[in-house]
């Protein structure tokens, strides 16, 4: 005996297959002459639940493209491949713009003491100059600059962590062929300039450096020197920051360094290498004797934002 359950046609749970089964059963019963409760049938239709499932069904291969993609192709007149290439180019351009924006951030200079400096560029490249004194050697190096071969300017053991592509530029490379060389690293441009000019430092074996960053800020580091012939030409460079040695023992004193600062004409002038490395990393009293426009005393451990 076939048992037919009463199907509520208005129920959201009633599915089209269920209705079709019910209809078939009624036809069978009627053909047998059985008296059964009259059940009004309505055409099978998708319920709200089934409609939602149908609409959510993911597209399969061979189905038509979304209307927005068709419209985009018609509007631009490009093929699908060309549209994807264009989108990839835009993404790459945005990534490049972001990198350039990071590079334009202001570098930060740490005065470590004596003649030692560390500069972190806007895109986090780390530059050490004449490593020897102080702290702050924990950051992996990308570039190491050495002005000359004296022990208090080349303690490379302080920088144990270096990136794979770390570059070391010594005075030998900076004076290659007897000419002052330039090095464009992308994140900084380095120019070797004259240094020496006293009995303790031969100009053929010593250099200073001018560093120019992507934000157009420039830093001059004199290295160990007395007044050089080139200094009078540096005034046209519009240098932003300048460091002058002024120990008065192995190099020029504070008075001569002040004269050099007047020649170079940097906006901010900073005395460093103020004493003998064997005695002190920084002689503040001697630093105060440095008298130049824009004179600024920076003590070991202090930072400057180069802007």
Your description of this structure?
The protein is an alpha/beta fold and 307 residues long. The chain is 26% helix and 20% strand. The strands form 2 sheets. Strands 5-4-3-2-1-12 form a 6-stranded mixed sheet. Strand 2 (116-120) and strand 3 form a beta hairpin.
SSE diagram, text form:
Blueprint: H1 16-31, H2 48-56, H3 67-76, H4 80-103, E1 108-113, E2 116-120, E3 126-129, E4 141-145, E5 162-169, H5 171-174, E6 182-184, E7 189-194, E8 207-212, E9 218-221, E10 241-245, H6 254-264, E11 268-272, H7 284-288, E12 303-305
Parallel strand pairs: 3-4, 4-5, 9-10, 10-11
Antiparallel strand pairs: 1-2, 1-12, 2-3, 6-7, 7-8, 8-9
Count of strand segments: 12
Name the quaternary structure: single chain
Q: Just name the CATH architecture of the largest domain.
A: 4-Layer Sandwich
Helical residues, percent = 25-40%
The percent range for strand residues is 15-25%
How does the helix and strand content classify structurally? Answer: alpha/beta
- What is the CATH top level name of the largest domain? Alpha Beta
- The H-and-E topology, N to C, reads as HHHHEEEEEHEEEEEHEHE
């Amino acid at each position: 005996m076939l048992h037919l359950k009463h199907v509520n046609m208005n129920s959201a749970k009633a599915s089209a297959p269920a209705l079709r089964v019910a209809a078939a059963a009624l036809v069978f019963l009627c053909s047998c002459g059985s008296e059964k409760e009259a059940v009004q049938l309505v055409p099978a239709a998708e319920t709200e639940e089934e409609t939602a499932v149908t609409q959510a069904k993911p597209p399969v291969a061979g189905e038509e493209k979304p209307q927005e993609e068709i419209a985009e192709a018609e509007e631009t007149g490009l093929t699908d491949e060309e549209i994807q290439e264009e989108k990839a180019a835009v993404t790459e351009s945005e990534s490049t713009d972001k990198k350039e924006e990071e590079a334009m951030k202001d570098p930060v200079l740490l005065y470590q003491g004596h003649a030692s400096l560390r500069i972190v560029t806007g895109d986090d490249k780390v530059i050490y100059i004449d490593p020897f004194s102080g702290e702050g050697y924990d950051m992996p190096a990308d570039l190491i600059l050495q002005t000359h071969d004296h022990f208090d300017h080349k303690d490379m053991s302080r920088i144990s962590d270096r990136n794979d592509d770390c570059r070391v530029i010594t005075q030998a490379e900076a004076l290659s062929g007897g000419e002052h060389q330039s090095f464009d690293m992308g994140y900084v441009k380095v120019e070797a300039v004259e240094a020496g000019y006293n009995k303790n430092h031969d100009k053929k074996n010593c250099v200073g450096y001018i560093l120019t960053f992507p934000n157009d800020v420039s830093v001059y580091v004199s290295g160990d020197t007395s007044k050089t012939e080139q200094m009078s030409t540096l005034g046209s460079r519009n240098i932003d920051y300048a460091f002058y040695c002024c120990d008065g023992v192995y190099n020029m004193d504070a008075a001569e360094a002040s004269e050099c600062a007047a020649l170079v004409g940097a906006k901010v002038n900073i005395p460093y290498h103020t004493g003998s490395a064997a005695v002190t990393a920084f002689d503040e009293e001697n630093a105060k004797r440095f008298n130049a426009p824009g004179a600024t005393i920076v003590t070991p451990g202090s930072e400057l934002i180069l802007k």
